[in-house]
Amino acid sequence: MSSSIKEQIELANQLAVQRMMESDPVWEGVGIARETIPNMREFMLLHAGPPIEWARMSGPMKGAVIGAILYEGWATDEDEAHKIADSGKITFEPNHLHSCVAPMAGIISPSMPVLIIRDRKFGINTYSNLNEGLGKVLRYGAYSPDVIHTLIWIRDTLSRTLGATMSEVKEKKTGVAIKPIIAQALTMGDECHNRLNAATSLILREITPYMLSASIDKVSLYESYEFMNQNNFTALNLVMAAAKAMTLAAHNIDYCTVVTVLTRNGTDAAIWVSGLDQEWFVAPAPVPKGVWFPGYSEKDANPDIGDSAITETAGFGGFAMAAAPSIVSWVGGSVAYAIENTQKMYEITQTRNSNFLIPFLDSQGTPTGIDVRKIVRTGITPTINTGIAHKNPGVGQIGAGLVAFPLELFKAALKGYAQRYGI
Amino acid sequence: MSSSIKEQIELANQLAVQRMMESDPVWEGVGIARETIPNMREFMLLHAGPPIEWARMSGPMKGAVIGAILYEGWATDEDEAHKIADSGKITFEPNHLHSCVAPMAGIISPSMPVLIIRDRKFGINTYSNLNEGLGKVLRYGAYSPDVIHTLIWIRDTLSRTLGATMSEVKEKKTGVAIKPIIAQALTMGDECHNRLNAATSLILREITPYMLSASIDKVSLYESYEFMNQNNFTALNLVMAAAKAMTLAAHNIDYCTVVTVLTRNGTDAAIWVSGLDQEWFVAPAPVPKGVWFPGYSEKDANPDIGDSAITETAGFGGFAMAAAPSIVSWVGGSVAYAIENTQKMYEITQTRNSNFLIPFLDSQGTPTGIDVRKIVRTGITPTINTGIAHKNPGVGQIGAGLVAFPLELFKAALKGYAQRYGI
């Protein structure tokens, strides 16, 4: 490789992380997917990870698809839902092709409410769905009547409460800025992927005054507050959509070797690289090493699933584990491991984040801007904090843990890069 | 000292920390001082620290006394307030003699609302006032009309909102348990004396559902939520009253050398020892080393003031600095210093707290149960995180910092102990 190309890459990568750090995503509103997400249409289901057809989908994703079909009323029972899913009538597309991200199976159907995030700096919109809570929930592949009931309540009550709240917010300002919330949460023991206790608290503190001044009936107000309050993952989908905005800001820069998507659909893991458009580099998704809910073990686990690794792509989550020593009781490992892991991630990233600081490392910025070249050179792969789904449809979450993205993905991407740029 | 006395002391100290850790303070309600605090009466003002007469009071305490006199309507202007304060008409008594604690000047007047904490384990009640926010506030010695106006709003609106909220709480449970909030906050970057961002968030999350279901008009609800939400010290007075309950549970144990009160009135610093009843050991209060608000420096600073060192007495605050690396930007020092300081406090304490864990030290319990003997033996004195008041009345807060309690206090206490127990 000539030194001028090396310089070009360096400049491109610098620009990428600069844009990632300048990105300023604010939560602006709530909409209905089909009316809000670009190119979303009837009989389309968005999903986590790279493209996949029904036949190859993992158990939890199939479960979530069945649930979404029942929720949409496209079928009235499980058998019929199976048939429709298999009939070709439904178009399956990755969230990432719609500036969207969603945790675990990540199924978004046309009538689901979605969070609207706007990057004030670069004018891009991104989206996510509303978090349903823990345990037996659609995103982990559960689809029993109570799961569907919660989704309906989210559509009819929670999303309307939040819609009215966000209208109040918009009277006063452009929206709820998410980066300062992530930054503060990192000083409060969160890494903002698998621990969001502080981020959820801060979001609630931020929006509650607007909830109180909005015109919302007392029951909806109470139920909506309690639903979000009882779920420390309430903030997850917001920070994911914000991370999607940050990484989109770094995407599509010529010569850039920075990773802008890390994602998995429960069957395959995949990445995008900034300088390689929307080309998917794909490898089998690994099974996370986990801390298991009682009665479950690794043999029950589905391979890694979800768009949530967008948090690590944007420089937090697993990359900020040193900020969250309590996370180790949830995903396994020791405090020393958490620090060591963050330290290792500096070896495969472009810079230290100027927004996201780790108090325990004397307020050093988090490792940010994953560089494909550095991964291939060092053999160190990105560590992701993740939830773990049962491999069968209909069960739900069985644990949480850590997973390393497969090295071969990054090797394939570097090969693709060499071909594309004729190096 | 005979070995049997040593054993007796060891048993007494073990019992003291066991009781301190078993204490289970819950926030149970809000009352008016004169109707709530035992032996509180008209023309009595409670104050922080050991007993002190008007003439010897420091600037900020005098300022707070003037403010309280104006608030009570005992005088209509500053001059008249001065005269009354000096007339002997007002009885000044330490909060600690009334199972009460309050930050900084700690002035509590008869018509002020107070928080009621009940120790579910030992049946003791403790009290504190409601936090007024930062800057120009009574507890820092300010008494301008806006300060008094806020106190009146606290009495007429906030305390009623909280009263109605606590009535809702009491329909469902005995109260809001404070220890789990402190324990969680220590995993979220608080040390719960000078950083209470997480504790305040958690308290708000805990009470908001009850606020929403109580019968409170919309304006009071909004104003009260926002007032507490805008002040990350909202939780301080609650955790202080809880700490008072914990330390009272350890008080009055024969032979016990554990410190149960550390406090200062801005002129003197003082301690109680469990085995020595309510005997005050007193020495001049030191001036904290601080981080100064713009325009101020050490020469403006009043000597250390407030009952808030009850947090360190109960095993958190400065003793848990290693849990709160972000605190160093507020009180000065480095992360390494914060860890080193917590480590040092183990040398002067009886045990590791079974409730309060420090995630970053692999979830080791905080140093708990300050032992007078160990302080005198090692020369290490308790480190307190504290706010700093201007030395003149009427100004307010000018910084925050660290202060070490004077060694001579503990030497005097050990001497008193030897006399009392004939050792």
What's this model, at a glance?
The structure is a homodimer of 423-residue chains. With 423 residues, chain A is an alpha+beta fold.
Could you explain how this protein is built, in words?
The structure is a homodimer of 423-residue chains. Chain A has 423 residues and is α+β, with helices and mostly antiparallel strands. The first copy, chain A, is built from 14 helices and 15 strands. Chain A has helices at 3-22, 33-36, 59-72, 78-86, 145-172, 179-186, 197-213, 218-229, 236-249, 310-313, 328-331, 335-345, 372-378, 407-421, and strands at 25-32, 44-47, 91-94, 113-119, 125-129, 176-177, 259-265, 268-273, 281-284, 289-292, 305-306, 349-358, 364-370, 383-389, 397-404. A four-stranded antiparallel sheet of chain A has the order 5-4-1-6. In chain A, a hairpin with a 2-residue loop joins strand 7 and strand 8. The longest helix of chain A is centred in the middle third of the chain and has 28 residues, at 145-172. Chain A binds chain B through residues 184, 187-190, 197-198, 201-202, 204-205, 208-209, 212-213, 218, 221-222, 225-226, 229, 325-326, 329, 334-336, 359-360, 362-363, and chain B through 184, 187-190, 197-198, 201-202, 204-205, 208-209, 212-213, 218, 221-222, 225-226, 229, 325-326, 329, 334-336, 359-363.
